[in-house]
Task: structure prediction
Amino acid sequence: MNLAVNNQSLMLALGLVVIALIIGWKEKLGIDRDMIIGVVRAIIQLFIVGYLLKYVFKVDNVWLTSTLILIIIFNASYNAKQRSNGIPHALPISIGAILASTAVTLGVLMWSGAIKFIPSQMIPISGMIASNSMVAIGLCYRNLNSQFRLERQAVTEKLALGANLKDASRDIVRDSIKTGMQPTIDSAKTMGIVSLPGMMSGLIFAGVDPVHAIKYQIMVVFMLMSATSIGSVLACYLAYRGFYNKRKQLVIPSN
Amino acid sequence: MSLISLKGVSYRSGDEQILNGIDLDIEAQEWVTIAGPSGGGKSTLVRIIASLLSKTAGELTFDGQPIESYDPIAYRRRVSYSVQQPTLFGQTVRDNLSFPYQIRQLPFDQQRAIDALEYVGLAASDLDKPVIDLSGGQRQRVALLRNVMIYPEVLILDEVTAGLDAENKSFVWQMIRHFNQEDKLTIIAITHDQSEIDDAQRLVMVENGRIVAGGAQ
Result:
């Protein structure tokens, strides 16, 4: 491995944060406090996670690995729920969507032999899947909320004509699924041209042959496409009913 | 037995009492015109009858049964509601006239759509016309046709002629007269138009959430 990040070089790299802080202070952006909190939190969280992972990898226990994956899924679901702006049952919907997207994607990867059920593979991959699903579902919720408000009259007219809830919401649900998946699709389109993605960069950094690294990255693209599509579809189809009451009338949730 | 019967119907939203003890009986094939000052509760009243809002007190029966006993979707296919400045769906006139068939999973009756378009002064070729190319009057005609492509029993019209010029207004009114007299639909129409109020067969005046005239026959 040709990686050489020691404590001294980390301290010097902290100078980069100081540059950002100076820019924020000079431009009166009012984000100095947030930036400092962000940096401190990142350092503490990553150190804790680093030591925790070291222990988990060493123990290599199925139950411990599964528990950590479930914790990752719960945290991602809780964060997605925070973007729901009052959509009813957003937490269980998010848990269901992220759990299903993670389970299906991991299942296919394991079945194809791309990964094995060992903590050093399962935990980072689960984190990538859950975090991408989380972002996609958060975007879906935001779009559902804004579209149901914007299209209120059209939805009411469809209901007035006798449409069922699915028919009345179809355009909004489709648009929201597209919105949730769009960042993954855009990022796949520009991969290698605009960005060298995280996993591939990490492998190259660690001395892996770039041609070998791209195979892993291609696997990541496939897996994120699957995860965001499953997560978005499930979340949208489970959440849109929250915009109606028992009498099948449109009610916009209050924040 | 009246087709629609409201007894002591009230509607409250938060601290605001919008409707207060409405009593109203509407017979089958009747044409009821509802008028009154803006903000008086007319639209809330018809939205409750259309099952798009739920009353907070009182009783509302349709065909002798409480409204709560009906599945809202099935009920709205019998009691159809149309608004001022309707939203047209999709891209073309066809998307709109086929919508009632789609939601019932029925094959689109294109000949009926063409006959209906011709009846309202549009051409058969307008079936594939983009909705953005329609004038205000044409939009309203297409929207009204959308409500009656598969006949409901009751057609509720919420100021459908507001904002139309005299010619279009008279045309739309002629359409509604046809629906009432030939197709035997019950019509409940909100209007601010004085000539429509003067011509009303039965006028119900709603003011400050109450019926002040025309509630009892």
Observations:
- Chain A has nine helices and no strands.
- Chain A has a mean pLDDT of 89.
